[in-house]
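Hi, can you check this record?
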Amino acid sequence: MAGDSTNWMILTFGLLGNVLSFMVFLSPLPTFYKIYKKKSTQGFQSIPYVVALFSSMLWLYYASLKANTTFLVTINSFGCFIETIYISFFLFYAHKTARIHTVKTLVMLVVAGFGLIVGLTHFLVKEIATRGQIVGWICLVFAFCVFVAPLGIVRQVIKTKSVEYMPFLLSLFLTLSAVMWFLYGLVLKDFNIWVPNVLGFAFGILQMVLYAIYKDTKKDNKEQDKLPNQIPGEIIILDDQEQLPEQIIDMVKLGTLAPSEKNVVPPPQTFVHVAA
């Protein structure tokens, strides 16, 4: 009876974790739609997607060394697939410098880094159980590093008092996803799964609290942006030859002063990560 209850919880939390993580993996789609429309990466960086690909590959390797990890395999297989598409799309529209930087990051992190982890653990550690523990610790440390990444966005929100670049729905899905994978790892009694998601849950709650505090600031900024920022002007020219006192002979209106074009600064990007 207890076994049936455990299997039911694994199925429930694993399935919900997959659904929520699936939505998180699709969250960069608006960014890539902008890239497609502009035919340019517009200063966006590829690092979050390379990191997400590396993370998915790590968890897939870990799942191959453990039992009852079907849901880890499914979501991280999708993660590898979608992140590969994102990176390919980015490379297609990126300028030469960004393209070279992306390729170097891929080679160092995905090819050399992941290859080194697989090679060393496979040839130096013969027991699969021990190998699983080592890879799990690597996943754990990497998950902690990735979950700390949103601190940059948190700092940006506090500094600017604006949540413009911290979507509430994304923060909500990340938080719920962390909860599901925490429960999933807890039921499996897998330390490497549930521990990093405690941090993920904490950062998710922090982001939503900041959103509740600063969401009205965003509206105020929008209202200020609606204020007129054009300065109409007139030049009045009097024709002295006509000698008509106080009579305007000619009036030349200046065109409204157009605001100078601002440099487009891309918003801070969120590291999409599924610690599962």
In short: Confidence is low (pLDDT under 50) at residues 230-268.
